[in-house]
Specification:
Layout: H1 2-8, H2 13-21, H3 23-27, H4 37-42, H5 45-60, H6 66-81, H7 93-98, E1 102-103, E2 106-107, H8 111-116
Antiparallel strand pairs: 1-2
Length: 117
Amino acid sequence: MDTFEAKYRAKYPQAVGCLLKDRVALLAFYDFPAEHWQHVRTTNPIESVFATVRHRTVRTKGCLSHKTALAMVFKLVTAANKTWRRLSGNNRLPQVIKGVRFRDGIQEKDADQSAAA
């Protein structure tokens, strides 16, 4: 990021300023295990499910009561569930939930652990 700033600050000061302002959020990606990167980067599972539901409910227009709309949404989400991929590195989820720190996708060792070793 520092190299990028040095190279492009003079030519694109506003763009570089914007990226540097959001630097922490942009690089938060690397605070997760490397196995999860493809999922963090490429998917939005909630939006993809809602897109399917939205596509179908818009097509049916006003012929739905609240009860039938709820049943249709349930069936659509259940059908979409069959095509979901399993999370790569799902064995790392307990570590992420516990707050274990990762740096560049690799688990950081605590100072206490490295001193004891």
